[in-house]
Amino acid sequence: MSDQQQVAPDRPAQDDDADLTTEQTREERAVAAASGAAVAPHTYTVASGEWEDLPDAVEDDLMVINMGPQHPSTHGVLRMVLTLDGETVVDNKPVIGYLHTGIEKNLEYRPWVQGVTFVTRMDYLSPLFNELGYCLAVEKLLGIADEVPERASAIRVIMTELNRVASHLVWLATGGLELGSTSAMIYGFRERETVLDILEYVTGLRMNHAYIRPGGVVQDLPPEFAERVDTLVSELYDRIDEFEDLLTGNPIWVERNKGVAVLTAEQCLDLGVTGPVLRATGLAHDLRKTAPYCGIDQYDFDVVVADTADAFGRYLVRINEMRQSLRIVTQAVAQLPSGPVMVADKKVAWPAQLALGPDGIGNSPEYISKIMGQSMEALIHHFKLVTEGFAVPEGQVYTAVESPRGELGYQVTSNGTNKPYRVRVRDPSFVHIGALADLTNGLLIPDVIAGVASLDPVMGGVDR
Amino acid sequence: MAGSGSGNPNMASGEATKLRAAHLPEAQLSEQLRAVRDNLVGAFDGMDVIGFRGELTLVCPPEVVLKVLQHCRDDAALSCEMLVDLSGVHWPAGQREEVAEETTGWPRYEFGEQAGRIELDYMVRSLRHNHAFRIRTMLPDDDPRMPTATGIYRSAEIMEREVFDFFGVDFDGHPDLRRILMPEEWEGYPHRKDYPLGGVEVQYVGATVPPPDQRSY
User: How many domains, chain A?
Assistant: First the structure.
């Protein structure tokens, strides 16, 4: 750019070229361009007062901006291509797949039991729900759904409901952080850790437990489980009250969430949206009530609803759902039946007896000495079942559980071999991504963040 | 062992087909699902009924699927407000047995199909009546085409994109049929049975990464 071109137009021009740049209006330049004449490069300066003449990106044109996948507030590697009119979103095209690991394909190459190890890694905030959904499907295919011991079912309920609390706490923490509430983040993650301590105490792992297996659970509860859960539950009731004190009346929190990202009941049903988002519209649809699994209907709990259909309603639903989950946990621990935790059928039940040692879960010394030292048949059985697994009859089933995000469905097809023929996971987060455009259209960019946070998608589940 | 199910791990692969008996429509369906079955079988010709483990599956030709879905949504007795799930299964043609040696166990995929097919499963659910069932259709796998269901259930939009991505089913009339989980330029349909699990070149725009076993790093 030459010096002359930067001269403000009201000063005398130095030569012809500069003349051109200052005196040609936008229309004249367009005409000149159309007729093939030379069009001088034009420099707009602020001093000249030529705002009227500026090509107006804000008024005339829509702007397309890219949000994510590395944006700290998009809740994981979610990328949204936003079309903006000013600062108002007119379209939102989500781009996903950054975490795609082909878990569904991998499942087809491993025996049925090993599938648990894969599915627990999909939606990493609710691993136990993934395991439960998958195992219920395998049990249904095997036709042993009624044979799962009551104690195993009760343990499954306790563990998944604790998992729901942990998941909602992460939602509170990350959602809070995205809206600028660092306290919610710190407290949310702190409380979640106390829940994960219990899960670790039972399964040996904080996450990716592989605890629920086809036919039951991998091992019984440790001795002090009931006391520790009681302590945790009473503590969590207090902490949830604290969250409500911190956020429910907080003017900033209310302002950021109330009336934001409304999704009506009709839209939710049309778009397949389930879980807290659907319940925030006032529709009390909860698979724990309508299609109960693991005998969860024998416990006394309420389906929490709100009637605002906005981000604030979803917040209230999730907060109160945590209380209901704790109610279920208290009842289930109090009524915990005794008995085995795995089906009696030795052709299905995982043979390894694990024991929780000081350094985590490992093989039980008694069991190892039995198969290595005493019983050749037990060793052969162990080897066959662990390496080859069991065959599952031909057929296709669909089982669904109410995960913290909504309906988590497993569409499992078997062709009669020891491996799944096809496992399709209907992950609620994935379906909810399809509702993003409806959720965010018409919002301002900061409200998009509140809206996505209130949807609580987990990209591990979306991309699988 | 009460269920016909839990198989013997020593069961030869061919024996699995004997278990087909479990697919007969007489298998236990609830009173409610029987009413659904009667409703749909009465309304449409050429419906096959499968009852398995208490689940109802209605198999119909591809041309009528949309009409059936529309009926499921609008009929007061069915009132299926939600398309819960849409998924595919690939059944390739030919008689062959696949043995994957690199994995534990001895997998045997027996393919006994006359012609390769892509199975589509539409899972619909009614909140009002609290029932759910499956509409199934079969498409040829060499040129699978299907009219889109987005006009009936908008949730089909994202699910059809996934089926297109993984199985290559062309949904006519879909507003935005692009790959969704795989990169847009990816070649091949990963969930088809003839697509290998590993050893596939990683395709990027302007570059490729060789399969894991051929890498120098």
Answer: 2
